[in-house]
Design brief:
heterodimer, A: 288 residues, Globin-like, 2 domains, five-stranded mixed sheet, 10 helices, elongated, B: 137 residues, alpha+beta, Heat Shock Protein 90, five-stranded antiparallel sheet, globular, binds adenosine-5'-diphosphate, binds magnesium ion
Chain lengths: 288, 137
């Protein structure tokens, strides 16, 4: 930025803010549901303050330089917050685009020499374009954080331990059983065995798409841990194609009680616990 | 002669990519009407190789191809990484051999699950594993 433009923009800070606010408020896509006008104004003011203060920088092209870090920090903070609040990329981008328009408008008003105007517009554009890229990068990072958090939550909620009978627990596993998930499954299961004093746990893997050697190792580990707690662990829901694959892989599950369905695992558990499930004799007062 | 009918590359860098890759492989297998048993074998093999890539080589990439040979269609997967490489492939291919305290069945098991298996590795450069599973094989 030439010294003149630099001072000009400093002097016109207020005008820039007003123009920018006008642009933002005029935008049909303004998310008044997500952000109050006051908040928007203070965010905008903070950014202009940092930006205009920085325009004297020679490093117009290199936003990685230290001088730019205050601006990037503020903008990044805004982008991350917006990502978390559920703003769309377009809405977030418009925040910076409308600032660019405000800045260009002020330059147009103040610089009369066309050649000079062009030069300065080019510089401002370059800076603002770079800032837009930063905004999107940070925005995406914010969205990724949201996704990661949800992944953790899903792992947490998708491993319920069910008391199917007094002394019998069932644990349906759905999806891939990775190391992190196994840890959660094992902890929940062992805790529940202690809490309920159960003697049999059924691990149902009908919802697991594939059993590779890692999943198998996790299953074996879980069974061993259950046994150490003095309970027996049955694995159910082994589909025929999974059984074949496991054999080909060379995995030895012969030390583990396996059943093809949850129902047959439950029947087995009943037998072990010497429980009998019988059809009740027909009584005369049954409603027909 | 084996012809490649379609190509798709998936980069594997983090845990989430593993599931994504397995889903892509499944899609391709379903598209060429591979039966359920073969599908499961292929996906399990892919799972072994992608886990090795993540664990021992910090990630890499997988080329997914639909290939055809005569009247048979199949899926070819090429896993390549620029990890440390495998110093002794014969040992690594043995059942139970593991430097990672796991079952040591990934490579030998994968070989049993697929129709064609090829492994190339150079210490300090990386590892390339190629497998083919035919739809009716
Ligand atoms: N992509 C790879 N890069 C480097 N080393 C590998 C790679 N894949 C496998 N290995 C080596 O080969 C060994 C055997 O692999 P595998 O049969 O899958 O068993 P496991 O993963 O249980 O150790 C591994 O322990 C590791 O030392
Ligand atoms: Mg392995």
């Amino acid at each position: 930025m030439s010294l003149n433009t630099n001072q000009l923009l400093k002097k016109q800070k207020k005008t820039i803010l007003e123009l920018w606010m006008k642009n933002q408020l005029a935008d049909e896509g303004l998310r008044e549901d997500l952000i109050s006008n006051d908040e928007l104004r203070s965010q905008s003011e903070e950014l202009i303050e940092a930006l205009v203060g920085n325009l004297s920088s020679q490093n117009v092209n290199d936003l990685n330089s230290d001088e730019w870090s205050p601006v990037i920090e503020i903008l990044g903070g805004i982008a991350i917050t917006r990502a978390r609040q559920g703003f769309s990329p377009r809405e977030t981008g418009n925040f910076v685009f409308s600032l660019k328009e405000a800045l260009l408008e002020v330059l147009k008003r103040e610089i009369t020499d066309p050649q000079e105007l062009f030069k300065e517009v080019l510089k401002i554009s370059r800076i603002l374009d770079n800032l837009t890229v930063v905004t999107f990068e940070t925005f995406i990072k914010g969205r990724e954080e949201v996704i990661l958090r949800q992944t953790d939550e899903i792992a947490e909620i998708s491993t319920p331990v069910i008391r199917v009978w007094d002394g019998i627990l069932a644990l349906p596993i759905i999806g891939t059983l990775d190391s992190a998930r196994t840890q959660i499954v094992m902890e929940n299961l062992l805790q529940e065995i202690v809490d309920t004093g159960s003697s049999i746990a059924i691990l149902d893997i009908s919802g697991v798409p594939a059993v590779d050697s890692l999943v198998a190792q996790h299953l074996i580990k879980t069974v061993s841990a259950t046994r150490l707690m003095g309970a027996e662990c049955i694995i159910s829901g082994i589909r025929p194609e999974i059984a074949q694959t496991v054999v080909h892989l060379g995995i030895d599950l012969s030390n583990i009680i396996t059943k093809s369905t949850l129902a047959s695992a439950l029947a087995y558990a009943f037998r072990v616990m010497r429980l009998e499930v019988k059809k009740a004799a027909a009584t005369t007062n049954t409603i027909r | 002669m084996i012809l490649s009918l379609s190509k798709d590359t998936v980069t594997v860098a983090q845990e989430q990519d593993v599931v994504f890759l397995k889903n892509r492989v499944k899609e391709v297998a379903v598209r060429i009407k591979m039966g359920l048993v073969n599908q499961t074998r292929l996906i399990t093999a892919a799972s072994e190789l992608v886990r090795n890539m993540m664990r021992y080589a910090n990630g890499g990439k997988c080329l997914i191809e639909v290939v055809s040979s005569g009247r048979n269609n199949g899926v070819r997967l090429t896993f390549s990484d620029s990890g440390p490489g495998i110093p002794d492939i014969t040992a690594a291919m043995r059942d139970g051999f593991s430097t990672g305290k796991s079952l040591g069945l990934g490579l030998p098991g994968t070989k049993r699950l697929v129709n064609e298996f090829d492994i190339k590795s150079k210490v300090g450069e990386g590892t390339i594993v190629t497998i083919i599973k035919w739809a009716n094989g």
